[in-house]
Amino acid sequence: xxxxxxxxxxxRDMREGARPDAPGARxxxxxxxxxxIGAERGWSGVLWSDLDETTADEAxxxxxxxxxxxxxxxxxxxxxxxLPFDLGRRLRAAGFTPEPEExxxxxxxxxxxLDAEVPEGVRLLPVxxxxxxxxxxxxxAQAFGRDSSRMRGQLLAQLxxxxxxxxxxxxxxxxxxxxxxxxxMLPGTRFAGLWGGGTVEGWxxxxxxxxxxxxxxRVAAEHGYRYLQVDATSQSRPILERLGFEPLTTTTPxxxxxxxxxx
Length: 263
Hints:
Strand content: 25-35%
Number of domains: 2
Helix content: 25-40%
CATH superfamily of the largest domain: Gcn5-related N-acetyltransferase (GNAT)
Shape: globular
CATH class of the largest domain: Alpha Beta
Number of helices: 7
């Protein structure tokens, strides 16, 4: 894989040319950035920017004012190759809080190892209704230790309004959900995105996560996507590398400062 070329394609398809990731969300381009305004309880943030040392600080301030006027918190999704090179420092100086850094990893179909199978006694169930969404959300709450209500609402909305853009799956041991994940497939892009792969304690390290990645990869290939992308934690990166993913850059969500509306 030619990393520089694929990263440029990713920036063009998924960031500069971003499309809304859920029903009711919208994409806006202003002040040198591309931003998403999420639907109610949906994700809002800056996806891409074209800034330099002379424009960065005012662009950051403009986004803080804009989202404050909407009464919304937001994320500035910073990638390791974004300019200016000290953009992270500037965001911190403006009151943003960085969350843990992850690695943008991308795999090209045809170069992936997709022979992973679910462990004995485990089956994969496609998620198509509210009961399935509840299982996904409950697994995520257990696996990640945080509230999953926003994800639950967004997944329900996607399945109702745009079911062709999302694939969700839950792994069951008997009748107990033990792992879950989803994939977004936005029309007009070359990248399908993996999100939210989580496994409950007691089932980790037994191949369930690997099987969920392989399952979603096969679905994306059937739909004609060329690449698969994921923001990988340090725990998932070794598994993804064995499946054929390659690291291209880092990504860090910067959470906005709380600013009174009208600032």
